[in-house]
Amino acid sequence: MMGLFDFFRRDHGEKVGDSDTPTAEQLKSHLSQVGLPTNGLDIQVADDTVTVRGSTASQEEKEKIAVALGNVKGVSRVDDQTAVTGGAQDQPTMPPQEQPASQTRFHTVEKGDTLSAIAKKVYGDPNRYAAIFEANKPMLKDPDKIYPGQVLRIPPQG
């Protein structure tokens, strides 16, 4: 279980819907638009916190759903209560400061960041930017289009 995931920056992210806080239906539609499955997911919104319950096919899918929801303008927290029911259960995710290099980590984009710069910082090799890009598909459609405050999945070195 991923648990509570803080995104901190409610005023950044992709605008979904017309109000300051997107509805559960708008968030479900957003997940579908970025190519993530929504069958079996229950999404609830309370202020700037999104709670998602249900099941996913893999740990990777679970993480992508949480990140996609958290990168929406008006959302600062995702309470991930989904279960992985498929066969691809990776190791559970821990807070960034406790994550070993063998697990998926998360990076909040800062001003001036590029995928190459993040890859150099995380892997020691800027040419590994494609691994970060691939780990964040389908939310990322272009490796040059990231923005400050966005949270990215960083796959394990390997």
From TrEMBL:
Looking at the record's lineage, which domain of life comes first? Answer: Bacteria
Q: Known CDD domains for this protein? A: LysM
Instruction: Note the InterPro entries from the entry.
Output: Bact_Kbp, BON_dom, LysM, LysM_dom_sf, Transpt-assoc_nodulatn_dom_bac
What spans are recorded as compositionally biased (Polar residues)? 82-92
Note down the stretches annotated as region Disordered.
82-103
Q: Which residues form the LysM domain?
A: 105-154
- Segments forming domain BON: 19-86
Record-linked PROSITE patterns: BON, LYSM
Listed name of the protein: Peptidoglycan-binding protein LysM
Give the organism the record lists: Azospirillum isscasi
